[in-house]
Design goal:
homodimer, globular, about 65% helix, mainly alpha, about 5% strand
Chain lengths: ~500, ~500
């Protein structure tokens, strides 16, 4: 057994997981309603096969052989990095008992159905028993993976390698102290006009505008495609087939357009991973059995947020592109200036719904959820207490009185799908987006390009500094290489502060 | 190891093959161009896994255990049938050496590319060496599978269990003696008007009309969907997700509409397989590693041809539906009567292109190809002789002088894709379609329904007598059960004779 054997086995695992990704993409975009039960079996079987291939005896022997073969190779040999990464991820995957994996598969289905019903009926009690079981299993998974100081840590690490709750708490404290006054200041200022956003904007033209910009940003439609879904997402089946979705509504144009650029940001990252990493561990998340090239969930989110918010919600961006938009919608935007449009798509409005939150309030939703997850994992909080705790934090962080569990603790689908520990990556991504964008703008060519609507220099810089490395570097390594330091909320706070100053 | 274990393993194999089917459907309908190389790896890996799962030691032990468990069960126990079917198919699959499977995978890719180039350039010589290798491998596969009298037989049996070349020759002889004079008679008669078929028919309205009729026939869109492809096809991922495609051209309305009904006919068969056969050997073609519920390629084709030709090209059908069509295309069909339309979509015109052939000449294309395949497999014919033999048979059977290899031996993609032995199933399907349709019409309710455009009785009869049995019966068993006899061209010849009499 040799390194080549290890590589060949990893390539096959990637193939299987890419097929799982396709089964998922198809279920969300194309599949007729009747196909759902069979699709569940297909996903479960292929996921099991991928897990068996990764954790099986043949792979272990291949890795042993590869380790022997590379014993005298230099420590920074990319093959040694690949092998070490695979051993670590397979180790984590192996520590989660198959008993839990099996029970989790069934539980997710039932919990998701119960959650959807509970949300529709504002009936948290009907969902609580399944949520309770889900949280108990997440604690088991945490214990099985082990490591870390806080029981939340192993779960955070599944999505953001190297991160832990203690570091998060420091970051959250800084964000809260900076954001709460900014939110208050924005809320106290006169609200911008938003009426025109709700005029009818024919969807085909929204899409044409959004895609034209996405292509200018660098999203390659020869290796991608755009479809419609209720919940926008990006998914890849190697760097050469990276698909995005968005949700366009005729009476709320910015929703679909910004979601498209957000997903295109994810997509460009995947499309930019080095070709030689295709079908390797560096394009395969073994812990989550997911085909993905990005370094972590947080680094991925930094790339979507960078294009959506740092670029797409900037004053400069609309100075460049509002004319095109108004040409496409002359009647709808006849009485709107570029400045008014920019103000409208940056309006700060505390609300109950995370996925509709503006840039200022978004992280407060994440901090709330993350603190609750940590308390649940530590056993400091029971499921029965969730509605009250949720309402209390919404009042403290956003000044809102939660009117119902539907608009409160039942907001997000994540827990019912078995995701605990992924919420922090949204805020980590926001922070990284500003760190990377600040660094990028030190280049004169990038700054000049942004002034002229030429996004090729920025895309090229990201491709070179972030995209191509994919999972061959950890998110922290990537940040250090590019910025010279680790995760630092200062540039993000500075960006939001500047934005509020400009808006108010 | 028990029968339940065998069943569980077969279900997982079906899941994997369904995923392969989806990878294929997606590649032909949705995949961006850049994805093609990665998709090849994914299909190859999953196909290998399915093959390994089917032919591996664990499955053999499971089948041994199941056989012991069922030793005292009655001979007609459905579980014994399932086990016997699985053992037979896995036996066939196992006999094809993996060396051939591996070489074939690469050869198909190169042969297909060479074929496409040769066809574009009318350069048979550029393709001949790869075709020669392909035919040599097909002879190896035939020898490996074994059985049969003629070396063509094992290949025919992969697509039509129970069929052999000797039986085919008897059938071909009857067809030739009946069809050649009919074709001559039709060709000598005045040609119908066809000019109006080439008027512009907006595609959306063609689709709406075609789908409305397909739904009336019984195609269930809740468990299916229609997409556009250059080459129409049907594919399933269990009975609950059965997709069809068609190719609509604005200036040739009948092409897209009839192809839709053809594929819907395949689709209804798959949708109608008994639910308890889902994820069993009765919905899995192990020999071809293809997820399909129909009894054979021929029986499948009988279901598409029945709806396309026996129903869709009948005088009665257009008496019922031409009004709807003319309401949708009032300008295009203003000067057209229902009779003229029916005559136009039944025009007999010998041509070089099989996929555009009319009902009368279609089988001559099949007989020609099938005779050539048999001679190639027997070694009576070399690849270098193909252009001349093709031209000779086209002259004999259709009275046409082949002007180029592009319109001759390079017509069909099948050989480059590794299919030898599947052509006869098209003619077998035509024959079965008339046998089954004749039997169905003995029911008063069905005949009355057809007169009134109510296709539910016919669909219900097919569901009961054909669809639900799926692969639990061989095609011959199905025919015997329904018609009381085996494959018999008489009803098909009678249908075509009656049609020519009505048309001339």
């Amino acid at each position: 057994m040799s390194y080549a054997d290890f590589e060949a086995r990893m390539a096959r695992i990637n193939d299987v997981i890419c097929a799982v990704n396709l089964l998922g993409w198809d279920a969300r975009t194309m599949m007729p309603p009747g196909g759902i039960d069979a699709r569940g079996h297909q996903v479960a079987t292929l996921t099991d096969l991928a897990r068996d291939l990764a954790t099986g005896e043949d792979m272990r022997r291949a890795m042993d052989g590869a380790r022997d073969e590379l014993a005298s190779a230099p420590g920074d040999d990319i093959r040694r990095r690949a092998l070490a990464r695979a051993e670590a991820e397979i180790g984590t995957l192996s520590r989660i008992p198959s008993r839990i994996v099996s029970e989790m598969a069934g539980l997710k289905t039932r919990a998701h159905a119960a959650w959807a019903e509970a949300r529709a009926k504002n009936d948290f009690a009907g969902y609580a028993p399944l949520l309770d079981r889900m949280m108990a299993m997440q604690r088991e998974i945490s214990a099985a993976i082990g490591g870390g100081v806080h029981p939340y840590d192993p779960l955070i690490g599944m999505y953001e390698p190297g991160m832990n709750y203690q570091r998060l708490q420091t970051i959250y404290a800084r964000l809260k102290s900076a954001l709460v006054p900014l939110i208050e200041r924005a809320a106290a200022a006169p609200q911008p006009r938003m009426d025109f956003l709700e005029r009818p904007f024919p969807i085909a033209e929204q899409k044409a505008f959004g895609l034209k910009i996405a292509a200018r940003m660098g999203y390659d439609l020869n290796r991608g495609r755009l479809d419609d879904t209720v919940h926008p997402f990006e998914i890849s089946f190697t760097r050469d087939d990276v698909r995005i979705t968005s949700r366009f509504r005729e009476t709320w144009a910015p929703g679909g357009i910004f979601a498209l650029w957000h997903e295109a940001g994810h997509g460009m990252y995947e499309q930019g991973v080095a070709p030689e990493f295709s079908r390797t561990i560096f394009a395969t998340d073994i812990v989550n059995l997911y085909a993905v090239g990005g370094a972590s969930f947080g680094m991925h989110e930094s790339q979507s947020r960078l294009w959506e918010n740092r670029v797409g919600r900037s004053r400069r961006f609309w100075a460049l592109h509002f004319g095109d938009l108004r040409d496409r919608f002359p009647a709808q935007l006849a009485d709107v200036t570029e400045e008014a449009f920019w103000r409208a798509v940056n309006a700060v409005r505390p609300g109950f719904i995370r996925v509709e939150a503006d840039e200022l309030t978004y992280d407060m939703h994440i901090i709330l959820r993350s603190e609750i997850e940590a308390a649940l994992m530590a056993g400091d909080l029971g499921v029965a207490d969730l509605p009250a705790v949720w309402a209390e934090k919404m009042r403290d962080y956003l000044g809102l009185a939660v009117p119902s569990d539907t608009l409160g603790v039942l907001q997000d689908v994540h827990w019912s799908h078995g995701y605990v520990g992924s919420f922090p990556t949204y805020t980590i991504g926001n922070i990284m987006s500003s760190q990377l964008f600040a660094k990028a703008q030190e280049s004169g060519a990038i700054a000049t390009g942004l002034e002229a609507g030429d996004y090729a220099p920025l895309h090229g810089w990201l491709a070179e500094n972030v995209y191509r490395h994919g999972r061959s570097s950890t998110p922290e390594e990537t940040l250090h290489r590019v910025t010279g330091g680790g995760l630092d909320p200062a540039p993000y706070i500075a960006d939001l502060t500047a934005k509020v100053e400009a808006l108010t």
